[in-house]
Q: What sequence folds into this?
């Protein structure tokens, strides 16, 4: 089975925690209030994950805090992964 290398979606950050969801869902349908919101790309490679955030939520009237939001999402992904650090994302399917 081939692992997907990129995942694109939407997110909101609420009290320092990310909520990520598919592009088809409107930000406001997930959360009525948030600290920031926008779009993300997660790029998986064998040893790490790169996260990029950009844009805005027109339904919440919020901007992405690009670098800060990317760090929050990346830290969250690292926290929930219980694999060995050196090969943490080798066989991750997203």
A:
């Amino acid at each position: 089975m081939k692992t997907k290398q990129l995942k694109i979606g939407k997110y909101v950050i609420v009290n320092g925690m990310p909520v990520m969801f598919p592009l088809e869902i409107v930000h406001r349908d997930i959360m009525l209030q948030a600290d920031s919101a926008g779009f993300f790309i997660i790029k998986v490679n064998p040893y790490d994950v790169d996260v990029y955030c950009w844009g805005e939520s027109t339904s919440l009237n919020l901007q992405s805090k690009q670098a800060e939001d990317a760090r929050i999402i990346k830290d969250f992904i690292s926290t929930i992964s219980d694999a060995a650090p050196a090969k943490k994302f080798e066989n991750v399917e997203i």
In short: The mean pLDDT is 86. Helices lie at 27-30, 66-80. The CA atoms of residues 39 and 77 lie 16 Å apart. DSSP finds two helices and six strands in the chain.
